[in-house]
Design a protein that fits this description.
Largest sheet: none
Number of strands: 0
Structural class: mainly alpha
Shape: rod-shaped
Number of helices: 3
């Protein structure tokens, strides 16, 4: 038994492996498009800036409210 025969490909070598059953560009592209691996990471990557933006808006709005209340207290005359 030689070293070359003892090596087996990984169970899931990916859409572009040499040992894939489907030959040709389009069958590989179809399989790549159907693949769901990493979809959660992509969704997280799109959602993170939105979440950070809304967090920043909430902090900015809270700071504006506190500042506005302080200015309003200074404007009202004491009785």
């Amino acid at each position: 038994m030689t070293l070359e025969n003892s090596r087996k490909p990984a169970p899931d070598a990916g859409a572009f492996s040499k040992n894939s059953r489907s030959k040709g560009f389009m069958p590989r592209m179809r399989r790549f498009a159907r693949d769901q691996k990493g979809a959660g990471a992509i969704m997280f990557a799109f959602a993170l800036p939105v979440l950070v933006g809304f967090t920043g808006l909430a902090i900015e709005g809270g700071m504006w409210y506190v500042e506005n209340a302080a200015c309003r207290r200074l404007r009202t005359p004491a009785h």
